[in-house]
Specification:
heterodimer, A: mainly beta, 5-stranded antiparallel β-sheet, B: mainly beta, 7-stranded mixed β-sheet, 4-stranded antiparallel β-sheet, globular
Chain lengths: ~120, ~110
């Protein structure tokens, strides 16, 4: 059962453009929504995360927008750079009990930023 | 500070062979996880542990076993390797309290032929 759906599978953006990746979740018990960035040959690394008590979180060029009623969240990369070319995963987890910290990942988006 | 260290980085197994993927972390994290990554499928949780001596199944545990005898180490055992276990395996760890940021190792690329 796929509880987090991510789109698009791949994305090509010109340098300086805006990259947008979307995710939708099903389980309303999720209360932590991170985005991970993965470069080839490396493990995923946390990029930015949000909890459902806020609708937006910004860190530098990276912004998460969160819509609790629609059960959707998205990653926006402003002024995209070639160095942002990587695979991006959205994820979700819930706090409490034995589910604490267990991340459910989306399928991933391969982002390519052309110079 | 090494973080999460996985060995080996690459391995080719023949069908029916067994092996252990090693994972160790030096951050004193209680929680540890094993994920497998397949193209277009994201990462799927195989097993996880909330502390030494405590393990539980994740989404795709069949064909794997784990143990957690110390806080630092969380090895993943493959018995009777099958081609379906060809994948990239990631070990991760996280703190008990606070933000549930997971720190990942660099992965083990396993091919079963």
């Amino acid at each position: 059962q796929q509880q987090v759906k991510q789109s698009p599978q791949s994305l090509i953006v010109q340098k300086g453009g805006i990259s947008i990746i979307n995710c939708a979740y099903e389980n309303t018990a999720f209360d932590y929504f991170p985005w991970y960035q993965q470069f080839p040959g490396k493990g995923p690394a946390l990029l930015i995360a949000i909890r459902p008590d806020v609708s937006e979180k910004k860190e530098g060029r990276f912004t998460i927008s969160f819509n609790k009623s629609a059960k959707q969240f998205s990653l926006h990369i402003m002024d995209s750079q070639p160095g942002d070319s990587a695979t991006y995963f959205c994820a979700a987890s819930m706090s409490g009990g034995t589910s604490y910290g267990k991340l459910t990942f989306g399928q991933g988006t391969i982002l390519t930023v052309h110079p | 500070n090494a973080g999460v260290t996985q060995t080996p980085k690459f391995r080719i197994l023949k069908i029916g062979q067994s092996m252990t993927l090693q994972c160790t972390q030096d951050m004193n994290h209680n929680y540890m996880y094993w994920y497998r990554q397949d193209p277009g499928m994201g990462l799927k949780l195989i097993y996880y542990s909330v502390g030494a001596g405590i393990t539980d199944k994740g989404e795709v545990p069949n064909g794997y076993n784990v143990s957690r005898s110390t806080t630092e180490d969380f090895p993943l055992r493959l018995e009777l390797a099958a081609p379906s276990q060809t994948s990239v395996y990631f070990c991760a760890s996280s703190l008990w309290e606070g933000e549930t940021e997971a720190f990942f190792g660099q992965g083990t690329r396993l091919t079963v032929v």
